[in-house]
């Protein structure tokens, strides 16, 4: 049996601290009537654990059509080459972070922080707009360009079962010149996320926030810290 948590119907937490390895950012899988979309892939060493967790949720990892990489850091992209090679899924990222992934840049990917390497890995789908929509049957998965932590950081949201679920990885930063961070752009990105009025926030390292009030408080707290 795997270690996975269902957030709402068909949305699963399959990786992250206390789920796979502590070095992993959170990893999610969304089930669109059998077509699976993965959001981030962890730092790499837990790839087989992620597979077990996906299978433990009753899902087939071979049905993952796309792995969306919210930004180029190793704790979010480490297992992307594994999933692309083993299951044939497409890798998607914003064009402003795609170069670091395709070149295996040790600084921009933060692989040097983890004392590891990230192999140059092709990106199959580049997002360029401020707001793009992927459609699966009657549902829409929204992708927002939310720069700040990195130039190509993205957030996603999905409306399902009367709830708006926001995937806002690494809202907390950090903000470093080596990452191409821009706190002023980040503030604008956070205002964009607050305007979504999400019911659930799936954050990159600090868990799941389950009410509109808790989502708002979490984002506002960091806005105050970096005011």
Describe this structure in words.
There is one protein chain. The protein is an alpha/beta fold and 227 residues long. It has six helices and 13 strands. It has helices at residues 47-56, 74-77, 80-87, 95-103, 183-194, 212-225, and strands at 5-8, 11-15, 27-32, 35-39, 64-68, 90-94, 125-127, 131-136, 139-145, 154-160, 163-168, 200-203, 208-209. The strands form two sheets. It has a seven-stranded mixed beta sheet. Strands 8-9-10-11-12-13 form a six-stranded mixed beta sheet. The chain has a single domain, classed as 4-Layer Sandwich (Metallo-beta-lactamase, Chain A), CATH 3.60.15.10. The chain is 25% helix and 29% strand. The model has no long low-confidence stretch (mean pLDDT 96). The longest helix has 14 residues, at 212-225. Helix 5 (183-194) packs antiparallel against helix 6 (212-225). It is globular and about 45 Å long.
Question: Into how many domains do the coordinates divide?
Answer: 1
What count of helical segments does DSSP give?
A: 6
Beta fraction of the residues? Answer: 25-35%
Radius of gyration: 16 Å
Count the E strands.
Answer: 13
Largest sheet: 7 strands, mixed
Low-pLDDT ranges:
none
CATH architecture: 4-Layer Sandwich
